[in-house]
Specification:
single chain; 262 residues; alpha/beta; Rossmann fold; 7-stranded parallel beta sheet; binds nicotinamide-adenine-dinucleotide; oxidoreductase; SDR; 3-hydroxybutyrate dehydrogenase; 3-OHbutyrate_DH; 3-hydroxybutyrate dehydrogenase activity
Length: 262
């Protein structure tokens, strides 16, 4: 089972997904990058990773707000590489508003992309894992899969939901006697482009400088007062995909600087 594997990382042309894709590529695995766009930059990114890692990396466009495209992503990856052994469900979006003002279309999009897409990609991938008797599914949840904050109802509902989906898939893998696991990683704040953009907005909203926003607004719930990094998330996924992690299944791993210990 130390042979080369094929990995899909959803939502991986940016941020955490890209960090995870780079880490899996560095292990030599075939890697499928994905997002909803289909630009020259997306394909150039795949070529850059392949050139530096010496692996095969391809970019496959799929809009994961749609069930059929979520399943098609898995089908296209399997056509290209023969099967899918590692599935990392990472794609996600955020919207912040009180429940009574939360736009219905934002609720629907967040549930579709952050939760339902993981169900569809897993459903399309599991038969291949059953065939091989080996598999790894890693869902990128959040500290908000275990705790809540105001004004993030859809995100928190989706992230709690994906933790439940994770446990169920793990139990079905165990029933089927597969050397397959399913876990969720729960990051605290990670300094991705997404979060970087929020810093500017928060500086304006609070009349604070960058450091004040980081310390008093963003890292206020993260006891280490440090961001987790995309490299640390990549390393955690690589570990979960290793044979040492065989008995880690149906659980969550927090990479949150102590957030959920408070
Ligand atoms: P990001 O915006 O940098 O990355 C999100 C990725 O999802 C991008 O590649 C984007 O193109 C893709 N995506 C968005 N909508 C899509 C769609 N419809 N179809 C396909 N792909 C789509 O953000 P990130 O911070 O790297 O977030 C990645 C994951 O990590 C998300 O699930 C997020 O909830 C989770 N997370 C992030 C943090 C953090 O602090 N950054 C903390 C906890 C959890």
């Amino acid at each position: 089972s130390d042979a080369l594997k094929t990995a899909i990382v959803t939502g991986s042309n940016s941020g955490i997904g890209l960090g995870i894709a780079r880490a899996l590529a560095a292990e030599g695995h075939n890697v499928v990058l994905n997002s909803y766009t289909d630009t020259d930059d997306d394909h150039a990114l795949a070529r850059e990773i392949a050139a530096s890692a010496g692996n095969e990396t391809v970019y496959i466009q799929a809009d994961l707000s749609k069930a059929d495209q979520s399943r098609m992503l898995v089908d296209k990856a399997a056509e290209r590489f023969g099967s899918v052994d590692i599935l990392v469900n990472n794609a996600g979006i955020q919207h912040v508003a009180p429940v009574e003002e939360f736009p219905t279309e934002k609720w629907d999009a967040i549930i579709a992309i952050n939760l339902s897409s993981a169900f569809h990609t897993a459903a399309a991938t599991i038969p291949m894992m059953k065939n091989k008797g080996w598999g790894r599914i890693v869902n990128i949840a959040s500290a908000h899969g275990l705790t809540a904050s105001p004004y993030k109802s859809a995100y928190i509902a989706a992230k709690h939901g994906i933790v439940g989906l994770t446990k169920t898939i793990a139990l079905e893998f165990a029933e089927a006697k597969l050397a397959a696991t399913c876990n969720a990683i729960c990051p605290g704040y990670v300094l991705t482009p997404l979060v970087e953009n929020q810093i500017e907005d928060q500086m304006k909203a609070h009349g604070m400088d960058r450091q004040e926003v980081l310390d008093k607004v963003m890292l206020q719930r993260q006891p280490t007062r440090e961001f987790a990094t995309v490299e640390e998330l990549g390393g955690t996924v690589v570990f979960l995909c290793s044979d040492h992690a065989r008995q880690i299944t149906g659980t969550t791993i927090s990479v949150d600087g102590g957030w959920t210990a408070l």
